Amino acid sequence: MTPNLSAGAIVDSPVLVLEGNILWQFENMSAFGAQTLKLQVEHGTLLGEIALDMSAAPPKGPRVVRREASVPEIHVDLSHLEMLWAYIYGWMVVYEESVQKVLLDPARVMDAETEKLIDRAHQLLAWSSSLRETYRPWPADLPSPQHYATAQEEWYGLKANLVFQKATAFLLSHERAHAALGHLDVIQSNSMTGLRLEMEKEADAVAYDDLLGQSLDDREKLADAWAVISVMLSTLYLYRDPIRALLPGGHPALHHRVAYMIERLALTDQHYDYYFSFLCRLVLQAVFPETLHPERQFDDWKDALTDALDRLDQVALAQAHGRPLS
Ligand SMILES: [Zn+2]
Hints:
By secondary structure, the chain is mainly alpha-helical. It has a domain at 2-78. Helices cover 59% and strands 4% of the residues. The protein is built from 12 helices and 4 strands, in the order E-H-H-E-E-E-H-H-H-H-H-H-H-H-H-H. Strand 3 and strand 4 form a beta hairpin. Helix 3 (78-104) packs across helix 8. The longest helix is centred in the middle third of the chain and has 30 residues, at 151-180. The chain is globular and about 65 Å long. The N and C termini lie far apart (45 Å). The structure holds zinc ion. Zinc ion binds at residues 174, 178, 200, 203, 251.
């Protein structure tokens, strides 16, 4: 990646140790993806280098930039990579330790070390969610790809690294697809037409096929599923007002993208299908507690997610028609 060192740049970001992993994953997603990327670079329709914006500023998602007659280039914000890793690590610890393990063993007594693990994961999530307001450097004492306080944190950190590199490769592949499919004129005009929304869906579908192209079984799909779900849900951390994520903006409404990904994942084992439906429900209700009432109980996590998506649709509709939100 080519760093763009502007004034107020982030120094010593801990995610930079994963730069090689991200690029390797992107260049080796699927045989078809790798071949298309190679052809794009050879034909001058995409720059082989990715521009890394190191500004100490709130994160924005990756984008393809084409200036006048120059070759289109994928731009990534370092602050976005930091937010994404912290999101993945934080939710993975919180979901596994304070939700899944409790479901498996309701009588489980949490030891002090686990309580501390969960608390520190919450602190990291709070930091990553605060970046949308003002950028603050990664708190050096909290978990990061370069620092773990315990072996348990390191165990989760290594899992988060794999999911993070797949999530980032998905994002890069989505941008690559825009360039390959001739979407750039429409995207640069910034119009939110039906055509633009179709292009975003197409780019998501290509990125999905790049990552999960071969038909894998559920267990093999787990890290990929975590990656695509994290890509979708972490966009909530990009908006100062997360309701904006429910309206079609630069991309289709977030909850519709989530629904599409869950459908495409088509996990056959009910355990895994529930696992991701429940995760999506929890993240959405943490962000929209007034709409989704976290105290509500469901027997079936598939229903719980459908309920969340329906309610968020109503909120989005009300917002689009200028009605007050209830
Ligand atoms: Zn896009």
